[in-house]
Amino acid sequence: MAGPRRKSPGITPEILLRAYSIGLFPMAESADDPEIFWVEPELRGVLPLDRFHVSKSLAKTVRRQPFQIRFDHDFDSVIAACAEETSGRPSTWINSTIRSLYSTLFDMGHAHTVEAWDGDKLVGGLYGVSLGSAFFGESMFSRRTDASKICLVHLVGRLREKGFTLLDTQFTTEHLKTFGAIDVPKADYAVLLAAAMESPHLKF
Fold it and tell me: Does 1 reside within a domain?
């Protein structure tokens, strides 16, 4: 359940990073609505890095290496794909304001992608924000079977390798729960977040 929505008439990348550091993240009503609002869920989705679960079938697929995995290669294409309307996602909360802000965060070294490529075709990926020792997952997409799942596996591997302590998924879904995602009460999340913000900003 999300907390009260707080309208934000003007926002800069610096304000956006500050919001993440205190537990807020932005959304839009639709792709056509230029306004954004802040969300602070009562229950926060977290994927514990030490309890990340991969099914045997997915682990087998990952070992086959069906796609080339790239990091931070084509941010604009990833966020554009995440914003596309699909049969399973008829509307999106990613508007032009969000796309512009996160593109700037990418240039600043605070937004990142994990991408699945098949030759010269981008077939899956995800993006999120890094701050301190926390990574805030924003959205993912898949154009091939298991492409986004494989990207998530590689994301967790990268975060573990670099010493990250918190993987925030904002909300939990049945899909994310199969990987070990849990709902964390806001007060408990604040403790996890504060600890992650005490860390120097880690290189992704």
Answer: no
Here the CATH number for the domain that contains residue 22 is 3.40.630.70
Q: Provide the domain count of the chain.
A: 1
Report pTM.
0.92
Q: 19: part of which helix (H) or strand (E)?
A: helix 13-21
Burial of 144 per CB tally in 10 Å (0-12, 13-18, 19+): middle
**What is the domain range of residue 10?**
6-197
- Give pLDDT tens digits for 78-102: 999 999 877 666 567 899 999 999 9
104 in a domain, yes or no?
yes
> Is 146 contained in some domain?
yes
Look at the alpha carbons of 120, 125, 129, 130 in this order and tell me if their dihedral is positive or negative: negative
Beta strands in the chain, from DSSP E residues, in sequence order: 6-8, 25-27, 36-39, 43-46, 68-71, 111-118, 121-131, 134-142, 166-170, 182-185
Asked if residue 106 belongs to a domain, the reply is yes
Q: Can you spell out the DSSP letters for 151-166?
A: HHHHHHHHHHHHT--E
